[in-house]
Structures are given as structure tokens and as C-alpha cells.
Amino acid sequence: MNDQPSKTIPILLTFLSYGAVALLIVLPVVLILHEALRQGLHAALETLKDPEARSAIRLTVYVTVLVTVINTTGGIAAAWTLTKYDFRGSRFLVSLIELPISVSPVIAGLIWLLLFGRQGWWGTWLGHHGIHIAFAVPGIVLATLFVTFPYVTRTLMPYMEQQGRAAEEAAFLLGAGFWRTLIRVTLPDAGWALLSGILLTTARAMGEFGAVAVISGHIPGVTETMPLHIETLYNGYQSVAAFAMATLLVLFAMTTVLIRMFLERSFRKQHL
Fold first, then answer.
1. Which of 6, 9, 136, 242 lies 20 to 30 Å from 75, alpha-carbon distance?
2. What percent of the chain has pLDDT over 70?
3. By its UniProt entry, which InterPro entries does this protein fall under (predicted)?
4. Annotated domain spans of the chain
5. Of 171, 190, 193, which is closest to residue 181 (Cα–Cα)?
6. Residue 134 in contact with residue 113, Cβ under 8 Å?
7. Which comes out higher in pLDDT, residue 192 or 52?
8. Residue 80: helix, strand or coil by DSSP?
């Protein structure tokens, strides 16, 4: 009896995989590009010169860079703490770090609104002191920080656990400080994981909608990020402008994916 699997099964699975990718990923991107260029490239580019569109782009880039830097720093610290030290409550801390993945972004936005909105717990005090968080850029940053926090930590932890603690302990015994040990000993071996986490954080921050929609107030030209501005344009029947902005957002996302693929290939070549 022949136990070898039929050659048709791998071919069928490959065909189904490519079909699913084409239907769920490639086709929507093609349709977005088609709608954006329906009136020509010049018309699509002109919509991106609108002051509100430019404001949305600037705000998205600003929030993405700021959130990525903060969450990279916090993610490295969290991963180091959880993998290099034994302490009571570590599993609970991991559960808290993973909480943003399981909680709806809309709920996250509501939490910040209940805390910092005008009718929130601290809203009145903040208003008296001229501090604006809800319906302002700080609220958008907080909401995006919340939903993107787990990525760097969760990508770094498996690599740091595989490393063990011997190398760091040897470095400390030889007189190396914390930062020198982290940069020279720990992170080089986990470099790919760190870069992967950073790119995941970047992509998630650029495309966040739910939490930001709740806490931002949807103020055009002030608190609208690119995803929010796309909704505003589409609801206003400005389809070409909406799809042009969506195309730009897709290009940003594809750029992060291509960078990730390039870095992964370079990392594998270095470790062959």
C-alpha cells in the first residue's frame, strides 16, 4: 500500500492558498487603486493636497513615530523584565500586556474618554488647568499606545527566553552596565524579533481606527488621522479623495511589509 500522499493534495492546497490571498488581499487593493484613479492620477493627487488631507497625513505620521518609539522602549523593558527575572505575578503581568489584543479598540477608546472626557473622572480637573487630552492629539496618542503595546514585547519574549541568562550574568560580572549589556549582548541575537515587533507596531499604529475614532472627536483638520479622514470623505460622497487617501495608507502599509521582508532575508543570510 502506498503511504505517499497524493501529488494533487499539495497542488490543491497551493491553489487554494493563492486563491484566498488573491480574493481577500490582492483584489481589495486593486479595487481601491482602481477607484482612486477613476478620474485620473492628477485628480487623485490633487485631493491629497487638500489642507485637511495634509493635516491627516501629518498627524498619522507624527502619532505613528511617537507611539513606535515609546512602545519599543517599553516593550524592550517589559520583555527583559519578564524573561530575565523571576518574580511573583509575572504571568498576571503577561496577561495585562496581552489585554489590548483581546479587548475591542472601541472599548479602549471609551475607557480613555471616561477618564479624560469633559464628563470623565479627571475631565473637570484637566479642563480647569487647560489640559486637553480627549478630543485632542494626546488622547489619540494614548489610544494608539494602548492598542499597539503588546507587539514588541510578544515578539521579543520567545527570543529572550531562548537566550537564557548566562550571557547577561557573565557581562555583569565583567563589569558591564545594564545598557551596555542590553545593546551588546541581548539585542543583537534578538535583532530580527525586535525589528519585526517595531514594524508590526508601526503598521498597527498607522491603521488604527476604533479607539482613535472614539477619543479624537473626529475634528477635521485637527484630530483626524488618515483612517478617520477616509471615513469622513467617503461619508461625504468624495469617493475619489477617499480612495486616494486609502491608497496612500495601503502604500505605507506595504512599505512596512517590504521592509520586513528585506530585513528578514538579510537576517537569514547572516545566520546561514
1. 136
2. 96
3. MetI-like, MetI-like_sf, Sulph_transpt2
4. 1-36, 40-270
5. 171
6. yes
7. 52
8. helix
